[in-house]
UniProtKB/TrEMBL annotation:
Pfam families with a match to the protein in the record: Methyltransf_11 (PF08241)
CDD domains assigned: AdoMet_MTases
Protein's name according to its UniProt entry: S-adenosyl-L-methionine-dependent methyltransferase
Record-annotated Methyltransferase type domain positions: 61-161
GO molecular function: S-adenosylmethionine-dependent methyltransferase activity
Listed GO biological process terms: methylation
InterPro entries registered for this protein in UniProt: Methyltransf_11, SAM-dependent_MTases_sf
Keywords, in A-Z order: Methyltransferase, Transferase
Amino acid sequence: MALIPGAKVLQTFFKNIDKAARNWEESLVDHVRRVSGPLAARMLVQMGLDTKTTAPFGLFDNACGAGAVAAALDGLVQPEVLRLSHVLCGDFSEPVIGLVKKRITSEGWVNTEAKVVDAQTNGLASGNFTHVTTNIGFHVVPDSKAALDETLRVLKPGGVLGFTTWHKTPGWASEVEAAFKAFPFPAPMLTPPLQTTTWGDWGDVNWVRQTLVDRGLEEVQVEVFEYQSRVDSADHFVTSTSMMIDWVTNSSWSEELRKEHGKEEVYGLIKDFLEKRYDGKPWDISWSALVATGRVPSD
């Protein structure tokens, strides 16, 4: 499966995130709380998993990241239902799964387990889950067609699929781009794409809807969800987005330019720019995502 420029850099980065990013655990958990968590909650409600849920379920969270879906379930579904249910968190990154295991223990997520899973060939039993989620994932899986096929394969008849993808370029990118333009040296920046796989158009409402209908899903619903997250300070922005800043420089800058202007210099210049831009005050970043759900036909 062909990838767009920078895709391999991103895949390698997340697979070895413990070696590639500073304070990566804190950054990922903070991102869950502010960005991916609210989106996961919106998806789960659209899937019919909320405070009104009474039937136990088996859910596979595909490309789980730091556990946004599991955390949202813990806050949405009644404890007595969770005690009779089962949640599997899967991700291709071993360090990230290690973080999720820590959160399962420290935050007391009941009947939740985590293991390394490749979304493209997950190795799970067919027809085993009532619900499968992929929160901000399909558009960055190298072979997203295979990942969608695998997702549908493991759903039980009548099972519910739910996923989210970015509808517009994430808000952090415009801040970094503006900062780069103010650098005292030429700092090129490839605009981060909405997807890093060439299959499909994951940010397009009509393409997503038609793709699910063509796969035979029923009750297909694709909504645009727009929201904001608070940035506490310029330092908070740099800390929380350092992983993506590194991806941008690794994808857009020559090796010579990266050697000449190291990470700490880049972080410092972005921080100084944002301090001035927002007068040292907090500000909000806007996000726009698609929330898609559908039901596999019953036997």
